[in-house]
Amino acid sequence: MSKKFGTVLVLALILAPVFGVRSFAYQKDKDAQKLALDELKAEVIVLERQVRTMQESLDRNNGQVNTLISQIADSVSAIRQAQSRVDSGSLSALTAVGGIGERLSATNERIDRLSGQLAELKKLVENLPKLPTFTTITPGNPDQLFAAAYGDYSRGNYDLAVSEFRQYVETYPTSEMADNAQYWIGECLLSKKQFNEAIAEFDKVPQLFPKGDKVPGARFKKGMALMELGQADAARAEFAALIKLYPRSSEAVLARQQMGER
């Protein structure tokens, strides 16, 4: 064995444990990084589910609040009409004590229902989750953009909300919340009483997102907008189509109520 070869062999024997330790440490560090990355991914999935659940809760509560508000408005209108009939009733109506008693009884029932609806509305509003406020929106953050848009809608900043919802639909058209964003554009315009514009936006929900879960809601709100425009036949046709296509949806129940069905 040459002296040179012996020297190399000795060095190899000396350095082998060192390289082995370094290799082990590198692999251990790599495994730790992978574990941390997996945990981070899991946390992101949990957060995404929480955001989705919160949004579904907000949508559901908002629909219930709008329905209650409509019912309250109808009750108030009925009460005023009943009071007007009593105040300006003819002489024959004044002498018909039994008829007046029935009217008063019906009015009292409406007032009782109105009180219950107001209590339920108050409870729903109190249970609504607090909406986050964003002074700036981080680029590339769809959840933050949607939350900001919905927050502006809730605060009555409809024009800003429309702009933000449109930005969401254009930037994230394949997102699970894209159909929701398109739906809320219609809601913003409906709140501004721009009924024709709202109908056009509600029509885009089934056109752009035919399998989206906001399609029944968009069709129902389109029907309500048609009612506001005095297009009763078109509204009934929309309600009938909604009931036929989505018979088990909560919007179908509301559509049947609008059509006077049970």
Layout of strands and helices, then pairs:
Elements: H1 3-87, H2 91-95, H3 97-127, H4 142-154, H5 158-171, H6 178-191, H7 195-208, H8 215-228, H9 232-245, H10 250-258
Helix pairs in contact: 1-3, 4-5, 5-6, 6-7, 6-8, 7-8, 8-9, 8-10, 9-10
What does this structure look like?
The protein has 262 residues and is mainly α. It has two domains: 115 residues, no CATH class; 117 residues, Serine Threonine Protein Phosphatase 5, Tetratricopeptide repeat. The chain is 81% helix and 0% strand. The radius of gyration is 31 Å and the shape is globular. The relative contact order is 0.05.
What would a concise description of this structure say?
This protein has 262 residues and is mainly alpha-helical.
The CATH H-level homologous superfamily of the largest domain: Tetratricopeptide repeat domain
- What is the tally of helical segments? 10
Radius of gyration: 31 Å
Distance between the termini: 103 Å
Strand proportion, as a percent range, falls in: under 5%
Order of helices and strands: HHHHHHHHHH
Task: Name the features.
2 domains; mainly alpha; globular; Serine Threonine Protein Phosphatase 5, Tetratricopeptide repeat; single chain; 262 residues; 10 helices
